[in-house]
Specification:
Length: 562
């Protein structure tokens, strides 16, 4: 056993606090009324996966088809038993993660004051390596309403192999833990479902509960309205984009190319566009649907730059979703072939250095895809070929599409004599907003939502279920009216090709072109392109009137406007 309570790296109770943090520490997150006292479980109908039902059912014989559940107020409280719970933060940071843990802590203490919470360190690897700390009240109190995942750290280890599950079981048994909460994105919750199924199949007596986390906003569906962190991160980015727009509208001399995190889906870019009204915002899903090439995208931006220049406006803002390159059809085909090639030759390529790997790829790739690769600057081509995360994803956050696009736009404008003739000037600056927003102090929305998700997870544990995701719905209404419950994770799954294999995974939510947020954006973007319609949202407000402080994202509002 490797408890790290005495480890010098875990100095939880000596942090210095800013005045805001001190004031924020006493903020009491709002809970749905249904969770305020004792709860009763209301079971819905049996569920099925979003697609590939037979295959998912066969892979999850013990956890497939479970009913959705909802919690309602229970006038008669039954005394609970003490429970030991483990918690893991998995994947990229997202504002509010600490509040999930605080809500979970308060929830299990409410079930029984002798309940205990253990945090596994640095992500799922902490479970496998038996590295943990006990999260006691003084530690928890230090982290209420704070950003970051530093309370226990996070990591991207994929929990997918039997020996990892068995190693984890050893420490869970040693600590008498009967429930594990995994706070993560689509991949981590997929792993939670696999772990739940495995522990159930061997009768381990360990419940596994997931919580929907990711700033990317792509873990959502009919039953999970949003992932936590999206609200705060997009508010932080929108504040800074607004500031840039005001600077740009003051000096009137730069075009700002702003790449926004979000991995594949363009939810973050779309939300920031709705909040800030930039001159251009690319939506990857639309680019794919319209089969636009890189040249088409460059022409689209250059035309807007030229049209603004003709009106004497040599300035503007362009928002670019991080995952753009994966959606441009010619590069999508290239990435897909690269994934198959590298996945099918895992062992062969494992020992290769970069030069050997490049040589291997160039010799084995189809001619069309070699041509596509050669269109890209060397640094981008290298990133597509070599840099993958543990889930086999291209590390899109490393690809400098903002520079790629502004360079190509500049070249196109130079080759257009009418641009200079009308007084056009094109001077570009580049930004990438991602890490800046992931650890911000959670907005009131995220502080409340996360605390509720964690508290609700304790109710799911008390209800004895496994393989469920904590779910809080009705989020556009005031928090007291939110609806708590649980969704079987298998319900969100389908089969997808990953690393050259068919795998059961939670279906990622991309921007829907027929959805209200995109439709709203599409109806206004021409106006934003040619006229200067910037909005400056300003910083997140934590104290003040609800209409300023407690508003959910515009995406959520448009999606759930009734
Ligand atoms: P999760 O899906 O794990 O929440 O991570 C999201 C994200 O912030 C992406 O937007 C980004 O592409 C990626 O993490 C960056 O990963 P890393 O933190 O490993 O650099």
């Amino acid at each position: 056993m490797h408890s790290e309570n005495n480890n010098v790296n875990v100095l939880h109770i000596t942090m210095k606090k800013s005045a805001l943090q001190k004031a924020r520490a006493s903020y009491q997150p709002k809970l749905p009324i249904a969770l305020a006292g004792a709860v009763k479980v209301v079971e819905g109908h049996a569920t099925q996966s979003v697609a590939d039902q037979e295959a998912i059912k066969a892979l999850f014989p013990n956890t497939y088809g479970l009913p959705e559940i909802r919690f309602e107020k229970n006038p008669t409280a039954t005394p609970g038993k003490p429970v030991n719970v483990g918690v893991i933060l998995s994947g990229g940071q997202a504002p509010g993660g600490h509040n999930v843990i605080c809500g979970l802590f308060d929830g299990i203490k409410k079930i029984h004051k002798e309940s205990r919470l253990f945090g596994f360190l640095m992500g799922p690897q902490g479970l496998v390596e038996h590295r943990y700390i006990e999260l006691t009240a003084p530690i928890i109190d230090e982290y209420r309403n704070t950003g970051g995942f530093d309370i226990i750290g996070s990591g991207r280890t994929k929990l997918e192999k039997k020996d990892q599950f068995d190693k984890g079981l050893e420490i869970l048994r040693e600590l008498n833990i009967s429930a594990l909460v995994i706070i993560g994105g689509d991949d981590s919750n997929t792993n939670a479902a696999i772990l739940a199924e495995y522990y159930k199949s061997i009768g381990a007596g360990i419940q596994v509960i997931g919580c929907p986390k990711t700033i990317d906003g792509d873990l959502k569906n009919d039953v999970i309205e949003t992932s936590f962190g999206f609200d705060t991160a997009t508010k932080v980015y929108s504040e800074v984009i607004g500031n840039i727009q005001r600077d740009c509208n003051s000096a009137k001399k730069y075009w700002h190319f702003i790449k926004l995190m979000g991995r594949s889906a363009s939810h973050i870019a779309l939300e920031c566009a709705l909040q800030c009204q930039p001159n251009v915002c690319l939506i990857s899903e639309e680019i794919e649907a319209k089969n636009m090439s890189l040249d088409d995208i460059v022409a689209y931006i250059a035309d807007i730059v030229a049209s603004r220049a003709a009106d004497g406006n040599n300035f503007g803002t362009v928002l670019i979703p991080e995952g753009l390159i994966e959606f441009i059809p010619e590069f999508k085909r290239l990435i897909s072939e690269l994934n198959e090639l590298l996945g099918a030759n895992k062992d062969k390529v494992a020992g290769m250095d970069n030069a050997q790997l490049t040589e291997f790829i160039m010799t084995n790739l189809s001619a069309d895809n070699v041509a596509a690769l050669k269109k890209l600057p060397e640094s981008v081509a290298r990133q597509l070929m070599l840099d993958r995360d543990p889930h086999g994803n291209v590390q899109v956050s490393l690809i400098e599409t903002e520079k790629l696009l502004s360079g190509l736009v500049a070249a196109r404008l130079e080759a257009t004599p009418s641009f200079a003739a009308c007084g056009g000037k094109f001077s570009s600056l580049h930004h990438f907003f991602g890490y800046e927003g992931r650890c911000a102090d959670p907005s009131n929305f995220d502080a409340d939502y996360c605390y509720s998700l964690g508290f609700n997870a304790s109710a799911l544990i008390n209800a004895g279920v496994t393989g469920y995701m904590s779910s809080i719905r009705n989020l556009v209404k005031p928090a007291v009216q939110w609806i708590p419950g649980g969704i079987p994770i298998t319900m969100m799954m389908n089969i997808e090709r990953r690393n050259a294999e068919d795998k059961p995974v939670i279906q990622k939510a991309l921007v829907r072109l027929d959805g209200a947020p995109f439709q709203k954006f599409a109806s206004q973007r021409d106006d934003w392109a040619h006229n200067t319609c910037y909005i400056y949202p300003g910083p997140i407000q934590y104290f003040g009137p609800a209409e300023v402080c407690d508003q959910p994202s515009m995406t959520l509002k448009y999606e759930h406007r009734h």
